[in-house]
Amino acid sequence: MSLKESSNRDGFTSKFGILAAAAGSAIGLGNIWRFPYVVGESGGGAFLLVYLSFVLLLGIPVMLSEFVIGRKSKRNTFGAFKKIAPGTLWPVIGVMGIVAAFVILAFYSTIAGWTLHYVYLSITNGFQGRDTAELTLMFEMFQTSTVLPVIWQLIFISLTAVIILSGVKKGIEKYSKILMPFLLLLLIALSVRSVTLPGSLDGLVFLFKPDFSKLSSSVILGALGQAFFSLSIGMGALITYSSYFPAKTNLSNTAFEVSIADVIIAILAGIAIFPAMFSLGMQPEMGGAGLIFMVLPNVFLQIPGGYIVSIAFFILLAIAALTSSISIMEVVVAFLVEEFNMVRRHATAITAIAAATVGLFCTLSWGALENVTLGGRNIFDVLDFTASNVLLPLGGLLIVIFVGWYMKFTEVKDEMSNQGALMLKFLGLFRFLVRFIAPVAIAIIFLNAIGILRV
Ligand code: TRP
Q1: Between the CA atoms of 33, 223, 89 and 64, what dihedral angle is there, to the nearest 10 degrees?
Q2: Fewer CB atoms inside 10 A, N or C side of the chain?
Q3: Which among 27, 67, 230 is the best mutation to test ligand 1's pocket, defined by most ligand atoms within 8 Å of the CB?
Q4: Tally of domains within the chain
């Protein structure tokens, strides 16, 4: 690529734009929809503790590694490895990432579609006058139906495609900047209401008091998958995003700040959900993927101004989902544009249509296709498991090995320090985590869970 071409490459502008875009990718359904139900199924406090350790020790190093690869190469996930390691097999990481992006987009849009439906239900006052059982039934009727969830999913994928089409700077930055602080405020309000409901204390105990007997190899792999999913790491979404970062971005600070923000939002979602659940007499492992859609309407009904709050909440959640899904779709679009010289418009259309096709099967997993299962999991769960608990950890493993062992340390250091302009306090720690702790830990967790290794 000539200099002229590369300087024409679209990019993010302000410091806040970068943080907002990266945080916009990380913060989404993973924090607010997925985190609570996985915590519920995994026994609460002990899972939370393991999850937090994984974010700190494994997640932040992987995220920073993606930033280094992306900004150094200024390429899509596949092209990045081709550029830094020409003539090697490393670009396979990029291929895995593109497969993972498809799979995630397919099932992510199912849940995002549910969110849109709940915007509609909120506006039309659909929760009013219903008790807990009726709200649950209402969700299940919707979840198992054939037409409506698919329509909402298609609307969501189209919205994602429209934003992708408007380009990186104008699109992503503009949409993610303003709205996330509002989501934070609403989550705080919901948490306050949730912990002041009668009988809510048990929910806090469940969330924060570790019961280590609940840990098993599959729960631990689940915590790793949740950490990776929530942080948007392991498939090159952040390689793609950081390829648009300017030279002066402080990569370490960005990785740290994004991860902390992500964890805070997830924990707040937990505080909004579990106390309310216990107060309603629901079991934490109930609900599955529908958990928040069954529980939160109950909370809205008990909040002053709940009508407005519920509308605002589901709209903001849908927007949080959008700022995440654009980062997933961008992985595939950037790949098609840069590697196959496709026009951005065509690349986006192809990606959206392909994702919608696979997504259809995910959305029908509880209804028309409920009998299609693998080892007791429906299509949705199989795809979620494959992406979150297999492809992302594997991708993360290869990414840290690439940065820790393949790249020259001086290259990594130059990129992290912006060619020497920044003082790096944690460089030694980062190097140690990336070379030893992260690869060994991810490998052990993974092999342990699939039964090859027993520790
Ligand atoms: N992290 C996002 C969320 O929590 C989802 C997401 C966006 C993602 N980009 C990703 C997950 C890349 C895995 C990989 O909702």
Answers
A1: 80
A2: C
A3: 230
A4: 1
Task: Please indicate, yes or no, if residue 216 is contained in any of the structural domains.
Answer: yes
C-alpha to C-alpha distances, 265 to 100, 180, 433, nearest whole angstrom: 24, 10, 25
Widest CA span in the chain: 65
Q: Specify the CATH number for the domain of residue 361.
A: 1.10.4160.10
Domain that holds residue 92: 6-385
pLDDT category at 171 given cuts 50, 70, 90 is low
Residue list, ligand 1 pocket, CB within 6 Å: 25-26, 28-31, 104, 229-230, 232, 235, 237, 324, 327-328, 392
- Is residue 59 in some structural domain? yes
Task: Please identify, by atom number, the ligand 1 atom nearest to the C-alpha of residue 235.
Answer: 14
Nearest CA to ligand 1 atom 10: 232
Contact between 232 and 25 (Cβ < 8 Å): yes
Average pLDDT over residues 171-178: 64
pLDDT band at 147 (very low <50, low <70, confident <90, very high): very high
In a domain, residue 420? The reply is no
198 phi/psi in degrees, rounded to 5:
-65, 135
pLDDT at 115 > cutoff 70: yes
Residue 101 in contact with residue 240, Cβ under 8 Å?
no
pLDDT band at 102 (very low <50, low <70, confident <90, very high): very high
3-state SS record for 353-385: HHHHHHHHHHHHHHCCCCCCEECCEEHHHHHHH
Residue 377: φ, ψ to 5°: -100, 140
**Whole-number pLDDT of residue 261:** 95
Q: What confidence category does residue 179 fall into, taking pLDDT thresholds of 50, 70 and 90? A: confident
Mutational pocket test of ligand 1: of 108, 232, 322, 399, the residue with most ligand atoms within 8 Å of the beta carbon:
232
Closest residue CA from atom 14 of ligand 1: 232
Dist CA 43 CA 49 (whole Å): 11
